[in-house]
Amino acid sequence: MSASSPPSVTATGLAHRFPGTNVLFSNVSFALAPGTVLGLCGPSGSGKSTLLSILAKWEKPWHGAIAYSYVNRIGWVFQNPHGVAARSALDHVVYPLLTRGMRRPDAETKALKVMEDFRLIEVAQRSFSALSGGEAQRLMLARAVCQSPDLLLVDEPTAQLDTSTAATVTETLHLLAEHGLMVVIATHDAAARATCTHIVDLADHVSNQDAATSFAPH
Ligand SMILES: Nc1ncnc2c1ncn2[C@@H]1O[C@H](COP(=O)(O)OP(=O)(O)O)[C@@H](O)[C@H]1O
Ligand SMILES: [Mg+2]
């Protein structure tokens, strides 16, 4: 197939437990294609972050498999925004473009275009430490887009934010998919959930131990 084949991810029959703990979830299957925004929902402790780690290949699933097709780069946006306090917002978005070999003027043009999408133009020259929580979180999403991942994993982007600030982040989440990414968002925020194209609710995949023992661990 050509190098331009669209990336995809297919997860089949995923189940996970950590050594010595109960089974967190079982029988989780889904497929991702460019434009998919999959919401991973479920209460705290249900395994949302764990499933993101499995998708990132940091953790091996106890049962089931994930097939990756044409996925070269996997990005991750953490629950709490991390940046360099004294650096400008713009610098944070330009940086991944420079590391990919783009020249500074081209990188700035591209970064500003993405920041416009994420409503960050007004704060482009502001230092990271002077951004609001919502601006900082949107900046992390804009930066992630410029890392050009095929698959972007976002862990509770609105968890630390008040309702109106969370809404500005949620509004921008669909932009990620418009940039052609496959996006998986762990969330228990109803507004964020509403923006997703697909939902996996881990509350529907809680396994009891009897059922779990019928799985053969790897
Ligand atoms: N490395 C680990 N070893 C053992 N237990 C873990 C490990 N990581 C997470 N857990 C446990 O797995 C459960 C699910 O955690 P997590 O995936 O963080 O849930 P969520 O993101 O939905 O809140 C929690 O009870 C947590 O304590
Ligand atoms: Mg979590």
Describe the fold and architecture.
With 218 residues, the chain is of the alpha/beta class. The protein has one domain (34-57, 73-205): P-loop containing nucleotide triphosphate hydrolases (Rossmann fold, 3-Layer(aba) Sandwich), CATH 3.40.50. Helices cover 33% and strands 23% of the residues. It contains seven helices and eight strands, in the order βββαββαααβαβαβα. The chain has helices spanning 48-55, 89-99, 104-117, 133-146, 163-178, 190-194, 209-212; strands at residues 8-17, 23-32, 37-41, 63-69, 74-77, 151-155, 182-186, 198-201. The strands form two sheets. A five-stranded parallel beta sheet has the order 5-6-7-3-8, with helices on both faces. The protein is globular. The two termini are 32 Å apart. Residues 209-218 have low confidence and may be disordered. Bound molecules: adenosine-5'-diphosphate and magnesium ion (MG). The site of adenosine-5'-diphosphate has 12 residues, from helix 1.
Which architecture does the CATH hierarchy give at level 2? 3-Layer(aba) Sandwich
Shape: globular
- Order of strands in the sheet with most strands: 5-6-7-3-8
Instruction: Assign the structural class, choosing from mainly alpha, mainly beta, alpha/beta, alpha+beta, or little secondary structure.
Output: alpha/beta
Overall pLDDT confidence? 88
Biggest sheet features: 5 strands, parallel
Can you write the helix and strand succession as a string?
EEEHEEHHHEHEHEH
What percentage of amino acids are in beta strands?
Answer: 15-25%
Predict the CATH topology: Rossmann fold
Distinct bound molecules: adenosine-5'-diphosphate, magnesium ion
CATH superfamily: P-loop containing nucleotide triphosphate hydrolases
* Domains (count): 1
